[in-house]
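> example.struct
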């Protein structure tokens, strides 16, 4: 969310870093308050090149439904943004699933990913306890 904003602001305020920082801080507040439309309006009012405006405007328009940051913060989501997810994707999924010569069925991949998540979250003890517990009686 913010990397696009900072990149754009450098083009919109190339000669005034103080104004750039102030503008970015205000847009960040608006985004965190889920006021994407206000940010889009403010982008349109800058003196940036139309090509640059269009790039960031398209990004925010296309991702508006995912940018409900006020709601996310209200329910206690500590991390807002894609960085944590992208990092997890690399460390949890790709590191194990993209080794040379591997082929995965859908069920096999799902099972492996479940095990990877359990391992990365250090929850093996819970799995062992489930495996050690007696099987549930089948109901008729």
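> example.seq
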């Amino acid at each position: 969310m913010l990397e696009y904003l900072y990149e754009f602001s450098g083009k919109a305020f190339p000669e005034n870093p103080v104004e750039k920082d102030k503008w970015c801080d205000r847009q960040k507040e608006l985004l965190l308050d889920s006021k994407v439309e206000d940010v889009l309006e403010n982008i349109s009012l800058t003196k940036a090149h139309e090509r640059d405006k269009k790039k960031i405007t398209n990004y925010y328009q296309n991702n508006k439904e995912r940018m409900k940051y006020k709601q996310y913060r209200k329910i206690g989501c500590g991390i807002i943004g894609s960085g944590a997810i992208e990092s997890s994707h690399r460390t949890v999924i790709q590191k194990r699933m993209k080794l040379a010569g591997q082929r995965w069925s859908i069920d096999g991949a799902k099972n492996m990913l479940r095990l990877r998540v359990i391992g990365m979250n250090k929850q093996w003890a819970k799995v062992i306890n489930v495996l050690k517990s007696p099987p549930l009686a089948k109901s008729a």
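> remarks
The CA atoms of residues 68 and 74 lie 10 Å apart.
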